[in-house]
Fold this protein.
Amino acid sequence: MPELPEVEVVRRGLAGHVVDRKITHVAVEHPRAVRRHVEGGADFAARLDGRTITAARRRGKYLWLELDGGEPGDDSVLAHLGMSGQMLIATADRPVEKHLRIRFRFADDGPELRFVDQRTFGGLSVHPLVPAVGGGLLPEPVAHIARDPMDPAFDLDAAVAAIRRRRTGLKRALLDQTVVSGIGNIYADEALWRAKLHWARPTEALTRKQGREVLTAATDVMNAALAAGGTSFDTLYVDVNGASGYFDRSLDAYGQAERPCRRCGTPIRRDPFMNRSSYSCPRCQPRPRNPHP
């Protein structure tokens, strides 16, 4: 699933291509793409006909388009990119993509917006904007998530305190979107490597200094990834023009099993973690004596 930098790359592309444009037609090509819109595809299309996209927003890994103002109660289009969802800008005469799921046309007859999703785990849905737990307005289904480290209103000390109140492993806390949003498996491993902290370190044993270091490292690595267009391991994650990111070339821990640590030369270790994997340096990130599983 795309993490914060990849979603931000897509958001920026949408902001430059679809904001202030009036929707004149929406075609739902596959019902799974609107399964989270409980009223169904016909209602989804009707709700958007004649509406103007006024902003492209993001918090953490969640992306949405605001419609007609962005005030409390106004509609928004929430995008779940899943593992292979793509928001593409395309001229009307471009051949239809094999996995096209939803197609938007606009009053200016300019480029279309196409939602393409090979694995159909993603989708779009319409929801009202409501006050969020972390402040601001978010689509109702994601109003519970915390602010992310790249948000101008992010409170670093409050996030550190929230992590230290948990009774879990550090990486689990970093992945908890109600504590701090936007950090996924890739950038958690990268931040922990930079901060020289093991993923199973108990959060209750984390010092304030260590908490600040790991969240600052997460911010730094996600900014670096954003500058590189995100991390792409295959052709499924692309920006709105279909281009892949290249931060995978700069990864220090994630996916680097058995390769020498760039800092000390020790082979990177891969451990099973929550049906996924964690990557760390056994020397730079020693396992704590009483780790959380």
